[in-house]
Each structure stands twice: as C-alpha cells, then as structure tokens.
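Q: What would this chain look like folded?
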Amino acid sequence: MLEDKIICECGNKSVSQAVEIFKDTTLPYKKAKKLVTECSRTCCRRPLMALYNMVEFGKIDYEQIDFLIEQMRER
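A: My prediction, written as structure tokens:
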C-alpha cells in the first residue's frame, strides 16, 4: 500500500504517519517537517512538502507522493 511506504529514511516514518503528524500540527512546514524526519536534512523535501500541502488543502494524491518518493530514491 502506498500509505505504508516510507517517506523519509531519516525518521523512518510512513506516508500515513506523516499525514497524521501534519494533520495534528499547526506548525509551518519547516518545523512540521522536523517532526517527521527528525533531522534538518533536505533529502526528502519534495515528497514531504507536497504531502504537507495536500494535507493542508484536504486532498491527498498518494500516486503523486509515490512518484516523488521514487524520484528521490533514484538520485
């Protein structure tokens, strides 16, 4: 399942865990990202930023997130 895919290796959080973290916080992206990644690196910035925006707007495109995760891993 796409929701179970790891979105960032640093924090070892799945997409669904990241969604819950983003839903439960009012922090801006930069600080909310650290709750998911548990680091300051930018390795998973694109999928996390996209997911953060999708959660904020209330519609999550899991296929787009999956595509961004795969692009990140190919680098």
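The longest helix spans residues 45-57.
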